[in-house]
Amino acid sequence: MAVQGNNVLIRGSLPIGSDSNFVYDQILAFVTTKLPSINFTNSTLIDVSVIGNMKTGEWKQLKQELTAFNLANTAIPYDSWPPYTVGYKATLLGSQVSGHASRFCWWPFQGFKSWWSQDQKIKQYFTNEGYNGEKGGYNFDGLVDQLDFLLKDESYPKIIYYHCTFGKDRTGALTFGWLVKHGGYSKTDALAKVDSVSIPNDDYSGMINDYFTWLFP
Fold first, then answer.
1. Which residues sit opposite 44 in a β-bridge?
2. For the chain, how far is it from start to end, CA to CA, in angstroms?
3. CA nearest 195: which of 217, 214, 215, 171?
4. Mean pLDDT over the full length of the chain
5. How far apart are CA 138 and CA 143, in angstroms?
6. Cα 200 from Cα 124, distance rounded (Å)
7. What are the DSSP E strand ranges found in the chain?
8. CA 131 to CA 122: how far, in whole Å?
9. Which pick of 51, 152, 185, 212 has the fewest CB atoms within 10 Å?
10. 74 pLDDT higher than 90
11. pLDDT digits (tens, 9 = 90+) for 169-189
12. How far apart are CA 79 and CA 203, in angstroms?
């Protein structure tokens, strides 16, 4: 959790309950308990989802989020993976969830194998330069910056909730990225912070190391 003024940045898992509804009240109760000095009454919830679409087998979960925000399937390129192959650009969508001011941002990414070339890792995963003829990339580094922008933008109070399916692998990597680039954490302290919640799998642990090496050569 990170705080800037009346903004708070928190990680988690898929925010859809067993009843298929968005767990707005649970998120609000959590931040209210952790930060009783902040009045979240007029806060806008920003749901930053990094889960995949139908090509990665997570379409059911992603569709639940879209439904919760009253967004059509066509709000995102749900029939193509990865989304950058269709020139996808992440934006804030929707206006409400569970009757409260909220926005939805879909910015998916995935891990890579350690033996892949550094050129591919940089151009296809860390940036949006494009690799081997692709139009762009996952731009993981851009997502790290986007979280920081939302946190530091004090034009309106917000709860920024970023998540993957289980709040472990992709979310852990993203947490590490923000901590070392914008949070002032050393690599060791950032890893300890990430691992204290849940240790990412090998693909994302490798991604963490490669991202740090690229960011701080």
1. 158
2. 27
3. 171
4. 92
5. 9
6. 20
7. 2-4, 7-12, 44-49, 96-97, 100-106, 158-163
8. 9
9. 152
10. no
11. 999 999 999 999 999 999 999
12. 25
Sign of CA dihedral 19, 47, 200, 58: positive
Those residues with Cβ within 8 angstroms of residue 146's Cβ, 6 or more apart along the chain or in another chain:
48, 90, 105, 107
Strands 158-163 and 44-49, by their bridges, are: parallel
Say if residues 45 and 97 touch (Cβ distance below 8 Å): yes
Amino acid letter, residue 211:
Y
Q: Please, are residues 24 and 36 in contact by the beta-carbon 8 Å criterion?
A: no
Mean pLDDT of 99-119: 93
CB half-sphere exposure, 98, CA atoms < 13 A = 18
Give residue 56's pLDDT: 67
Residue 126 DSSP symbol? I
Q: What is the mean pLDDT of residues 51-70?
A: 88
- List the structure tokens of 214: 């690229």
Handedness of CA 55, 103, 191, 17 (dihedral sign): negative
The most distant pair of C-alpha atoms in the chain lies apart, rounded to whole Å, by: 51
Other CB atoms within 10 Å distance of the CB of residue 83: 22
Mean pLDDT of 186-205: 89
Question: Does the structure show a pLDDT above 90 at 99?
Answer: yes
By CB atoms closer than 10 A (0-12, 13-18, 19+), residue 208 is buried
Please state the domain extents for the chain.
Answer: 2-215
Distance CA 46, CA 79 (A): 24
Q: Would you say 49 and 42 are in contact if contact means Cβ atoms under 8 Å apart?
A: no
